[in-house]
Amino acid sequence: xxxxxYLRETLSLYxxxxxxxxxxxxxxxxxxxxGVFLRQKTPVWEILQLVGYRLPNxxxxxxxxxxxxxxxxxxxxxxxxxxxKAAYAAGVPPRSFIWPVxxxxxxxxxxxxxxxxxxxxxxxERFDNLQYKIYYGSEPSGVLTDQxxxxxxxxxxxxxxxxxxxxxxxxAGLEGIRVVEPGGAIWSADTGRWENGAWVLQNAYRxxxxxxxxxxxxxxxxxxxxxxxxxxxYDALKMPDLQSxxxxxxxxxxxxxxxxxxxxxxxILAWIAVVVGLSLREAAWAFIAVIALIFGYWTFWxxxxxxxxxxxxxxxxxxxxxxxxxLLALVFSWRLAR
Length: 338
Hints:
- The protein is an alpha+beta fold.
- It has 2 domains: 2-137 and 249-337, no CATH class; 144-230, no CATH class.
- Helix content is 60%, strand content 16%.
- The protein has 8 helices and 6 strands.
- It has helices spanning 2-40, 44-80, 83-89, 98-136, 239-248, 253-279, 283-309, 320-337; strands at residues 144-149, 156-163, 172-180, 186-195, 198-207, 213-222.
- It has a 6-stranded antiparallel β-sheet, with no helix packed on it.
- Helix 6 (253-279) runs antiparallel to helix 7 (283-309).
- The chain is elongated, with a radius of gyration of 25 Å.
């Protein structure tokens, strides 16, 4: 009974918490781009579109953080009105509140994963295109420059330019191609095309490690199937496309790991919020805990991205905030069980 009562109160506060964080993040977005809007005389409709396209990204942050806010604010009221003490005095163990909260956290984690994997990428691509139009007055050309891929076991693939596939063509166009095979042989070609599962080099020549040179009018080189080049960030690729990209490009592995980490983070944040809240004896500390938990998680989340830039922990760095908070949740859970 008490558990259901706590969950009802938490869910009503959860809506408020999500809206609060959506408002704060949207305000930050508008303030950071206000100078561009004024300079480019951006129509109000395009500004509203930009905010709408950014909403899934905002929800990816607001959904888990709003849960921390709701869980701790609800417990703050219970502490202030001595309801938590009364529950303990009646023999209700603290751990009985944890399992229902973990169930809610699991539902939120599923929503975050669906948002990260499918909804957010669609909106992110539209956001990037509209932002480019606002900045430069035209749509992006779709041409990629200086692209390097290192598919596992296939060597190094480089193209100076990659052009979008045109009607009637079997794949994207390639220019300025260099491929280094695992054995050391180097393929070069001025032009080629990117077909599904291969780079097809035209008028290619190969330099063997012993210095001998061979030429071919057309030569296919294997490349992981399922990954097609797009002039968008990895954040704008749907989950299946990003998984295919991660097989060909190590730079895609951190964004992929971060999507799973963000979803798992919702569950871990729910866990640590409830065990911290149940450990408190003063309502004021619950509000401090809201700030401390959110600020701490955001700090580790940002730090992991910096590690990825310098390839310190690889894709495993995406799990840094979750590992830290998982260990903290274990400590507080152990204290409650004593």
